[in-house]
Design brief:
222 residues; alpha+beta; Four Helix Bundle (Hemerythrin (Met), subunit A); Nonspecific Lipid-transfer Protein, Chain A; four-stranded mixed sheet; 7 helices; 4 strands; 49% helix; globular; MDMPI_C-term_domain
Amino acid sequence: MDYLALLHDEFAAYQDCLDGDLTAPVEHCGDWTLRDLTVHLGQGNLWAATAITELRGDYQPEPPPEDLGEWFEGTARTLEKALEREPAAEAWTFAPPRTVAFWRRRRCLETLVHRWDAEHALGRPAELGPQLCGDGIAEVIEVFVPRMIKRGLAVEPQAAVRFTATDLGGSWVLGPGEPVATLTGTAQELMLALWNRRPLPWETVTGDEAAARAALTGPLVP
């Protein structure tokens, strides 16, 4: 997957939202407005760039200017420049692998979800690429669920649940052993559900629903 090209496209799509109402509330991000979301994403770009170029995770952001458009574009370019390093090059990360490749994937998927947030806040239809959404499902299972458990913010699932994307023909399993249940939807629907942007599609469940609900007791992501 060409994360650099995909990230560039996601940045462009997010930038298009900055001609909208920056006071619009962002439904799934507490009391944030679109301006707050943009500051979060832009400062995250600079944090990740510092993690790559300076091998540290303690970047302290400065307050952004009032006009966010040019500032956000600058943070995107800074990150893209940092990500041009070899994927196997060392970087500070909060989970393995400790390489630039981690940040290529992470920032692409972070921007994907927040692009949806921004378009949703503005009442614009948000269509996300199914392949990238499928990778987002995998990232939640591979990176965030273990991290939430390690940090004591979630419990180890006692059963496995399969997520099947109808538009990709692929599936992913969260939890140990053979899956006791399956949830079905498009890759976008499933990824957004795992990121708490929409309810999990319990109407599609097959198998042991009670065990699946217990296994998916959150939070699965920060």
